[in-house]
Design a protein that fits this description.
Blueprint lengths: L1 E6 L4 H12 L3 E7 L11 H4 L13 H6 L4 E4 L6 H11 L3 E3 L8 H9 L3 E4 L5 H16 L5 E8 L9 H14 L3 H4 E2 L13 E7 L5 E8 L4 E8 L3 H14 L5 E3 L1 H5 L5
Parallel strand pairs: 1-2, 1-3, 3-4, 4-5, 5-11, 6-8, 7-8
Antiparallel strand pairs: 6-9, 9-10
Bound molecules: nicotinamide-adenine-dinucleotide.
């Protein structure tokens, strides 16, 4: 039995994690955290997730939840809360799966330092399809000539806070990696006005609206042909299932930085 603590449990993903954990075998949610500001502290996590009561209430006391020695913590909260979760997991020696997005590159060194002490996965997208898409994009960027322009278009629901999505950034990083460059050196975050497209740019376009769960399209636009790689999520349960699989995989590992690629056993294409 893998014992999990979920941070951000009252949110859309937190609720999906509770529902999917009830369908999976070998998983027990032993701690449910959210922020005081959520107004959900003390509520039963089952009722929040649209299930019968589960006898576990939402708490804001992460340290107390970690003292119960869970096997893994899963964080789907907000970027501002991730440093606190990370520090607490390191202090208590608990493996951490971060699904939260929206933090900047300044977290890289903190994640690196933490991974020398605990097993850690930071995954901007936990779906099987996107895990594979990242590898396909890396391969396409590596094999197509440099005059194929790379553009990334993503769409999400109207409430999503960060933009571009963490998945779009991961796809951009994979495309840049395939070309042997750093994303920050070639990214074009927004286009407006009269500046033409610069050679070698990787452009990002963001759509927000309605209840779109998540769409990512990577366009390799050449002269006379286009290669388009696209993923569409229609149910956020896929992210919850991927995160739970990742958490189970992470339990009991040696300290280190792992990826969803490791979880699904994907070899490089
Ligand atoms: P949401 O706003 O519905 O839920 C976030 C929850 O976290 C809320 O209940 C909020 O009160 C809580 N929270 C905020 N700050 C907190 C803190 N410091 N400590 C504890 N709880 C805190 O958002 P969501 O749609 O569930 O998404 C959550 C995060 O997961 C976002 O960053 C989103 O981009 C990311 N996400 C990742 C994937 C993936 O596959 N990795 C998929 C979907 C969403």
């Amino acid at each position: 039995m893998t014992k999990l603590v979920i941070v951000g449990v009252a949110g859309r993903m937190g609720q999906a994690l509770i529902r999917e954990s009830r369908l999976a075998s070998g998983i027990e949610v032993v701690g449910a955290l959210d922020s005081l500001r959520s107004g959900r502290i003390g509520e039963d996590v089952g009722e929040i997730a649209g299930l019968p009561p589960l006898g576990l209430s939402v708490s804001a006391d992460l340290a107390a939840a970690l003292k119960a020695a869970p096997d893994v913590v899963i964080d789907f909260s907000h970027a501002s809360g991730v440093p606190t979760t990370l520090a607490a997991c390191v202090e208590h020696g608990v493996p951490l799966f971060v699904g939260t997005t929206g933090f900047g590159p300044e977290m890289s060194s903190a994640f690196g330092a933490a991974a020398s002490r605990i097993p850690l996965i930071v995954a901007a997208n936990t779906s099987l399809g996107v895990t594979l898409l990242v590898e396909l994009v890396r391969s396409a960027a590596a094999h197509l000539p440099a005059d194929f322009d790379i553009e990334i278009v993503e769409a999400h629901h109207r409430l999503k806070k960060d933009a571009p999505s963490g998945t779009a950034l991961a796809l951009g990083a994979a495309a840049a990696g395939g070309r042997g460059v750093e994303l920050q050196d070639v990214a074009a975050w927004a286009r407006h006005g009269e500046a033409p497209r610069a050679a070698g740019e990787i452009g990002f376009a963001v759509v927000r609206g309605g209840d779109v769960v998540g769409e990512h399209r990577v366009i390799f636009a050449g002269t006379g042909e286009q290669l388009i790689l696209e993923h569409r999520a229609t149910d956020r349960a896929i992210f919850a299932r991927g995160a739970l699989a990742g958490a189970v995989w992470l339990a009991g590992r040696a300290p280190g930085r792992y990826t969803m690629r490791d979880v699904v056993g994907l070899s490089s294409v």
